[in-house]
Amino acid sequence: MSYSKVPMSTVICHTLFVFTNLFFFSWLFKLSILLTTFLCYFIDFLLTLSLRQHCGSGTRRKVKRLLSFQRYCHASRLLRGLVPHTPGSLHLLDDDYLGQAAHMLSKVGTWNFDIFLFDRLTNGNSLVTLMCHLFNVYGLIHHFQLDMVKLHRFLGMVQEDYHSQNPYHNAVHAADVTQAMYCYLKEPKLAEQLSPLDVFLGLMAAAAHDVDHPGVNQPFLIKTRHHLASLYQNTSVLESHHWRSTVGMLRESGLLSHLPANMSHDMEQQLGSLILATDISRQNEFMSTFREHLDNQDLDLQHAPHRHFILQISLKCADVCNPCRVWELSRQWSERVCEEFYRQGDLERKFDLEISPLCNQQADSVPAIQIGDSNFCYFQNELQMKN
C-alpha cells in the first residue's frame, strides 16, 4: 500500500497515539521519581525517630550525613533536571556556580573577598563550594585521581563538624582561612615552586585547621579537666584534636584509600604538621626560625622541607589575617571573636573560675581586646628575640 493512499485521518490518529504514549510515559517517569523521593524522605524520617531512641549523637550525625548526601545525589538533581554542563565535568556543586556566586569565585584570589556574602549566596556551603572550586583550579582531582563522591563526602563531613553556634570558630572562618591561604599560594615566587602535593596539603590544612572547635581555648579545657586536655597531655590540645579529627574523616570517607599506604600516611603526617603549627603558643618558635632563615638568606623553595615550612607560616598568617582585610570585613571578625571570648568568660564566671584574659565582657572592650591580642603576640616575639 502506498503512503499516498493512507487517509489523512489515519495519519493524524497514529501521530496522536505516539505523542500520547510519549507524554504518558514521560509523566510516568517523573511520577516514579517523585514517589521514590517521597519514599526516601519517609524512610529517613523513620530512621531518625529510631536513632533518637537508640543511638548516640555521633551515630545520629553520621547517619544523617549519609542520608542527606544520598538524597542529594539520587533525587534532587534528577527532579530539577540538572546535568553537568560538559561531559566529564568535575564541578560538584554546579548550582552554586551560577549568578553572583560564580562572579565572586572569579575574584577569589583578592584580599577584599567577602566570605560572609559568599556564604549566604551558597546557602551556608561556602567551605565545600570554595574547596571544590580551588581543587578544580589546580587540577588536584585529576592529579591525585580522587573519587568525586568521596571528595564531596569528606568536605561535607568537615564543614558539618564545625560548630555553627560558635560566633568565630565555625565553617565560615575555615572558608575565610582557605581563601586567604589561596592568596598566599598564588604569590608568584611561591606558586612557581609549589608541587601539587604542597597545594593539596595547604588547602586541606586550611579547610580543616579548626574542625570541631568547642568555642573555648586551651587554658579553659585544662582548668576544667576536659577529656581532650587529658588525652593530649595539655599540649597543643585543640590543634591535636583538629588534626586527629581530620585524619578520622579522611579514613571514614576513603578519600585517600586508593593511594599507597605509605603515601597516604605521609600526607596525614604533613597535614598534622601544618595544623599543629597554628598553635599560638608556638608562635615564638616559628618566628625565631623564620627570622633565622631571613637573616641567613638560606630559604630554598626547591627543598621540600623549606616549602613545608613556608606552608606552615602561610597557614599561620591566614589564620590571623582578619585585621588585614578591608575594614567592613575586619570589623565583623573582631566582633565575632570578641563575642566568643565573652561567652567563655561568662562560662568561667558561672562556674566560679578565674576569668581568662580578654574574656571579661565587663572590663574588656572590643578595641581593647584587639590591641591586647596584638600586643600579646608582639611582646612574646620580642621576649623570644631577647632570649
Q: Can you tell me about this structure?
A:
- Helices cover 68% and strands 0% of the residues.
- With 387 residues, the protein is mostly helical.
- It has a domain at 95-282 and 311-376: 3'5'-cyclic nucleotide phosphodiesterase, catalytic domain (Catalytic domain of cyclic nucleotide phosphodiesterase 4b2b), CATH 1.10.1300.
- Helix 1 (8-54) runs antiparallel to helix 2 (57-79), helix 5 runs parallel beside helix 8 (171-185) and helix 14 (261-276) crosses helix 16.
- The longest helix has 47 residues, at 8-54.
- It is globular.
Order of helices and strands: HHHHHHHHHHHHHHHHHH
Would you tell me the structural class of the helices and strands? Answer: mainly alpha
Cα-to-Cα separation, first versus last residue: 106 Å
Low-pLDDT regions: 66-94, 376-387
Shape: globular
Mean pLDDT across every amino acid position: 82
Number of helices: 18
In which range does the helix fraction lie? 55-70%
Largest sheet: none
Radius of gyration: 26 Å
CATH architecture of the domain at 95-282 and 311-376: Orthogonal Bundle
CATH superfamily of the domain at 95-282 and 311-376: 3'5'-cyclic nucleotide phosphodiesterase, catalytic domain
Number of strands: 0
- Assign the CATH topology of the domain at 95-282 and 311-376: Catalytic domain of cyclic nucleotide phosphodiesterase 4b2b
Protein name: 3',5'-cyclic-AMP phosphodiesterase
Domain PDEase: 93-387
EC number: 3.1.4.53
Active site: 169 (proton donor)
